[in-house]
Recover the amino acids of this structure.
């Protein structure tokens, strides 16, 4: 431990990382640099600076990464229509490689020989942070306090915090808050009564979205404009990636869009129950599939759907910087060359309904698809041979089956 002279800590200013900051100072007797990333969590970050200063920290980094997060991480992921195990839109997962990248950069800039994070030894985040860090600097030393200290329970953390004068946020009833993570893509909740998958979460837990039952009784329609698979405008007004996220979060939250309560399979082997609010992501996923439905070739679309679970698994497990993820990203991005146009969606009582899509690059040909006279664009009689050729192997099997009866 005495070999570590300086460590860069991923610091939120919250209870866990404040305890870690103090623990690093006491146990490693090293200089600590704090790094706080603004990735759209919607909280004032100046308190993190003041709290770090109260621990005597001299080098404090607070960086606005909202545009980088949306442009370089969230948008590329949504080009693939990425969703893990059919429900999770990967809000926490996709933020970890960005934080790891900047931890490594700050370590290089400050001459630190280690980085540290607050992920527990039971979760996925420890893997995501460290895989990302080692991919960018194979020689970096990683300090993961949850794998080293004896503060293995929330009660022991509270005792440590009280001993060292570290304040703790409480719920209205005085009990500990949920374990939460927020950024411009989502906010997540774990722990507490959520550890029983049968218990319904309290309505007061949800911080972003109104209850669908209490959402406006009037639907709201919005139009998303796409260029090469990315949203570039909302209701005809050009916006940056982060601005898109902010607006869609606001609109989605107003209409109760984006709530999820799920049990997922962690990379480390256990199941975990979590609740999520992902308004912008829910809207973008539905709209992106809609614009692809008229602009992508059938086999390209189907191949993307086959690749997506593996791509989602790579992100969930922390392999953002792995060569296979980069290879898949190249394929996905190439498929988006003609994914341009507009999608109209209706937000209503927790739902997102596509009500229209149009594109100059559309492969939808009304002259062929029509139920009316198609003026010879499609010869319906051709379908007979097509069907018989595709039925040949099944007809042979059926004949053989009769012969053996």
């Amino acid at each position: 431990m005495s070999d570590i002279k300086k460590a860069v800590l991923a610091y939120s200013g919250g209870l866990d990382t404040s305890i870690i900051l103090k623990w690093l100072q006491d146990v490693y007797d090293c200089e600590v640099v704090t790094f706080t990333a603004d990735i759209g969590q919607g909280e004032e970050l100046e308190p993190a600076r003041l709290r770090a200063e109260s621990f005597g920290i001299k080098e404090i980094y607070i960086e606005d990464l909202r545009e980088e997060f949306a442009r370089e991480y969230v948008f590329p992921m949504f080009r693939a229509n990425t969703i893990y195990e059919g429900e999770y839109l990967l809000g926490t997962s996709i933020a970890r490689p960005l934080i790891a990248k900047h931890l490594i950069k700050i370590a290089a800039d400050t001459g630190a020989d280690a980085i540290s994070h607050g992920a527990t030894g039971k979760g996925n985040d420890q893997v995501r942070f460290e895989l990302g860090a080692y991919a960018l600097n194979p020689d970096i030393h990683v300090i993961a306090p949850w794998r080293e200290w004896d503060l293995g329970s929330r009660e022991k953390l509270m005792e440590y915090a009280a001993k060292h004068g570290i304040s703790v946020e409480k719920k209205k009833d005085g009990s500990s808050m949920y374990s939460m993570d927020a950024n411009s893509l989502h906010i997540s909740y774990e722990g507490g009564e959520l550890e029983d998958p049968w218990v319904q979460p309290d309505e007061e837990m949800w911080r972003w979205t109104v209850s669908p039952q209490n959402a406006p009784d009037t639907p709201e329609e919005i139009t998303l404009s796409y260029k090469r698979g990315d949203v570039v405008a909302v209701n005809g007004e050009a916006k940056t990636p982060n601005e898109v996220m902010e607006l869609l979060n606001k609109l989605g939250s107003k209409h109760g869009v984006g709530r999820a309560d799920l049990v997922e399979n962690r990379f480390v082997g256990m199941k975990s129950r979590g609740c999520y609010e992902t308004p912008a992501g829910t809207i973008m996923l539905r709209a992106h599939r809609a614009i692809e439905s008229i602009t992508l070739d059938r086999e390209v679309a189907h191949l993307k759907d086959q690749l997506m679970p593996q791509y989602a698994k790579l992100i969930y497990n922390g392999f953002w910087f792995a060569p296979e993820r980069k290879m898949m990203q190249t394929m996905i991005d190439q498929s988006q060359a003609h994914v341009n146009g507009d999608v109209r969606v209706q937000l209503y009582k927790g739902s997102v309904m596509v009500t229209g899509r149009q594109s100059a690059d559309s492969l939808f040909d009304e002259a062929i698809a029509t139920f009316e006279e198609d003026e010879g664009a499609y010869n319906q009689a051709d379908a007979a041979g097509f069907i018989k050729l595709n039925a040949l192997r099944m007809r042979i099997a059926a004949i053989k089956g009769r012969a053996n009866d």
Q: What stands out?
A: The longest helix spans residues 382-403. The chain has three domains: 6-65+92-178, 181-358, 374-403.
